[in-house]
Amino acid sequence: MRTIFLHLHPVKVNETALRFNRTFGLGGMAVLLIVIQIITGILLRFYYVPSPAEAYNSVLFLKNQVLFGQFIRNIHYWSGVFLLLIAFLHFLRVFFTGAYRDSRSINWLFGLFLLVLIVFANFTGYLLPWDQLAYWAITVSTNIIGYLPVVGESLRNSIIGGMELNADTLQTFFTFHTALFPFLLIAIVLYHFWRVRKAGGVLLPETPGKSEMVPVMPNLVFREFIVGLVLMAILLIFASLFNAPLLEKANPSYSMNPTKAPWYFAGVQELLMHFHPFFAAFIIPLSVIVFLAWIPFFKYNEPPNGHWFISGKGIRSSKYTAIFATVATLAGILFNAYVLNFEIVMQGIPALISNGIIPLLILFLLMGGYYQFYLKGFRLSKAELVQAVFVFIVVAFIILSLTGIFFRGKDMELTFPWNV
Amino acid sequence: MKKTGKDIAEEGTRKGITRRDFFGMAWKGLGILVAIESVGMITAYFFSGKNKKTTAPKQLLEAGLVDSFGPGSVSAFMGGRFYLARQQDGGFIALSLRCTHLGCSVSWEENKKRFICPCHSSAFDISGEVLNPPAARALDYYPVLIENGVVKVDIGTLKERKSARKEQLIYA
Fold first, then answer.
1. Which residues of chain B lie closer than 8 angstroms to A411, CB-CB?
2. CB A363 within 8 A of CB A332
3. ipTM of the assembly?
4. If one looks up domain A1-255 in CATH, what number appears?
C-alpha cells in the first residue's frame, strides 16, 4: 500500500512546492473526491433501479429503509457538488499562477476536458432520482440542445431517445453516469498527474534564496493526508446537516414553477433569458471554450514566472477588470429585464438579430470602450491582457450563475434570495 | 549471380520504396481503417436505436361528443398529453402540453384566457398562437377527427408549426 502511494509521487520534491498557498492542495482534493464518488456510487448502485417506474421508489427505499442509506446518498450528492467547485478553483489556480503553457499546454487541454467531463458526470447523475426536480431540470437543459443549428433537433432526440424524457433517457444517462464517465475520469486523471510530473512538478516562482529538495515521504504524503482528513470532515458535516434534495415523483404533465437547470448550468440559463438561444446556448459558450483551449497557444513574449497574477500590474488590471465585469453584467441583466426587452421593442425584426446580434454588439462596444479608455493605459503584456479577458469571462460567468441560482424566483422573474 | 535479400532490398530503396516500407504502410493503413470502422460502428449502434421518430401508428383517443365542448372552452386530457381547445367559431384543435421554448408543460389559465408556461412565462392564446416570448413557435398539435358527432384525437402524430392558422382547425 505504502509503495503504491509512493509510486505516484517523485522521490524528492521542492520545499516551496509544499507551501499550502502555492496550490491549496486543490488537485489532490479533487482526486480524493473522485475516489469518494466512486465508492459511494458503487454503494448506491446496490439499491438503485434505473427505470422510470422503479427509480424513484428505489431512492425512497434507500432513504427510508436502508441503514445509512440517506447518509451515503448525501455524501455522494455533496462530494459531487464539492468536486465541481474544487475542480473550478483548481482551474483558476492553474491559470492565475501561469501553469498553462510551454510544457504544460497539453495538460491544460486535458484539464479543461476533465472539467467538462465532471460537469457532465454531475448532469447525468442529476436525472437518476426521477423526481420533479430531476425531470424538469433535465427536460429544460436537453431542450436547449435542440436550438443548435442543423443537427440540434435530432441530436436532442437521440440523447433522450424520443420527444420527451422516457425509459431510454434514464437508461442512457445511467450508463454514462455509472460506466463511461467514471472510467474516462480515472484514465484521464492518471494521465493528467503523469504529465504534471513530466513537466517537472508544480510550477514555482524563482526564489532569491536556495530552495531545498526534501523527501516526499513524509513531507508531502503527510500533508496530503491531513488535507484529505480535513476535507472529509467538512464533507461529512455537510452530509449530516443537509439532505440531498428529493421532491415528489416525476410528473410529466405538471411542470415546476420555476423550473431551473442544474446549478452549474444556471449561467447558461441566465444567458438564455437575455439572448436568442442560438447565441446563448451555442455561439457564446462555444467561443468561451475555444478561447480557453487557445490560451496556451498564443505567442507570449516571456516564459511564465510562476507568480500569482504575473505582476503588480497584472494584479491591478485583474482587479479593475473584475469590477468592470461585475458592473457590466449586473447592469446588462437589470437593463434587459426592466428597461428594454429587445425582442418586444423590435418586433418586426427576426429575434436572431434583435435579441442576438444587437445586444452582443452593445456588449462588444462596452468591452472595447473599457479597453480603449482604461485598460490600454496599463501597457499590459500579452499574458496580462489574456489574463484580463480571462478575468472578464470568469467573473461574468460567476455573476450570471449566482443570478440564476439565487435571484430567479416564480415565473423566472428576478427577485431576492429569500423569495426563491 | 544469385540475388540475396539484401540486394533486393537495396534495389527497392533505389526505386524509393522498399518491401518493408510497403508492408509498414499497409499495416498502418489497416490500423486506421479498423479505427474508422470501430468509431463508425459505435456511432451507428448508439444513434440508430435512440433517434426514434414518433411515427407510431394511428392512436385514436375519443375525447367526447362535439356538443359537450362549448365554444371558447379548453379541456385537459392529461393521459393523452393535450388540451382540446374549441375556438369561439366552433373549430377544434388538440394542443400539445409541451411549451415550444424548452419543453415544460403549459397550463390553461381560465381567467386570463391563455396558456402559460411556468418555466419562462411564455404565453399562448386558445389557438396556440404565441402571445408572449421567449417561445418562438405556436404550440404543436395533434390531428383531430370528427366522426358521427364524436371528437377523436390522433395522439400518435405530433404536428409542428410556425404559427397558428385557420386551416389547422377542424369543424364539425
1. 118, 120-121
2. yes
3. 0.76
4. 1.20.810.10
